[in-house]
Amino acid sequence: MPVTSNPSQGARAASSRRPDATASRRADPVPERFGQTLVRRMRDVLIMGVVGPAMGVAAIFAIHEMASMQLSASRAAETARAARESERALAALEDRPMAAANVPTGVAPAPTSDPAPAPAATTVTTLTTASIDPSLVSLAPIPEPRMPAELDVADFGAMTPSPQARQMADWVVSRHDNGRLPFVVLDKHNATLYAFRADGVALESTNVLLGQSRGDDTFPGIGNVPIAQVKPYQRTTAAGRFVTRPGLDEDHTDVVWLDYDAALAMHRVINKVKSEHRLTRIVSKDPNVRRISWGCINIPIDFFDRRISPVFGKHTGIAYVIPETKTFDEVFEQGHAAPAQPVLATAAGATSTAAAMPTPVATANGPSLAPRDIAAR
Fold first, then answer.
1. Mean pLDDT computed over 351-360
2. How many CA atoms lie within 13 A of 211 on its CB side?
3. Sorting pLDDT into bands at 50, 70 and 90, what band is 65?
4. Which of 78, 173, 235, 313 is 20 to 30 A from 263, alpha carbon to alpha carbon?
């Protein structure tokens, strides 16, 4: 009966025999050439001639042993490499992972330049709208973007304002009296200034210097009266709601005008009159000590540079000055009927009190105001 052979078994058997044949063929010693033999003999004679017969024989024997060890290691590495190549070929034929090769102890595996096998392809199922059952899909409504809620009262954060400052700021925020403009609140009772964002969040507060005399009114024409002729009782900081404008003093230093005609402004503290000790007074904890100016609001230099100049020194804002001798309603409510009429920082000769404007609009600043000498105020 004829014997039927399996082709795959035959290929496997042939492949399994390849490593032995290859290894035996590579393990056969390579015949030396005549030149190599002559060089080796001359080296042996030279060694014996230099160190003597006895020492020469020992040296030659040691050299030959080292060469044999190197040759054996090289042959073992070649044999291991041939076995790995055969195993890789057999694994490719049988479509299976290659088994770990048996590497002789002490012989490092030879690096291979063959690329790593590519990972198996992953089948990706593409879903289309036609393959989805609409009854299984519930479309949730897309939420509308949440807008920040408007404040009903001012947010002082970690600050602890006075009752007067709290009342003033809450009045502004609850009515949106400032429109979209940043604003400041000046508490004359405590000689403290609060800077706010347009949304009613307080940024920071600071001590300030105010008019030496208590009072909420500006004396007519006081802005044009020389400093030497101003009476002590006329050195007041007026109360009210002011639409501020950027400006310059006579030295072309930036200031913020509250009332240009009355020479009422916010500016950096200046100590031109040494006897007034303004730099010492402004850090005092006693609000009474901080009443020394001629009416202007003197602000610490660092605070002015960070909170006032970058905002109110560039654009229009609102300043709310809390009264100290009048009632809040007298200044801001006007008989509980309408909000206060803002005092505009107008140029000389223009009307200083504007018509009722509940919500100021950030319009252009208008014609530039001529610099005025207010350094000593």
1. 36
2. 31
3. confident
4. 173
**Overall pTM surpassing 0.70 (yes/no):** no
| CB neighbourhood size of 77 (10 A) | 16
Max CA distance (Å), the chain: 142
pLDDT of residue 366: 53
User: Is the pLDDT reported for residue 66 higher than 50?
Assistant: yes
pLDDT above 50 (res 335): no
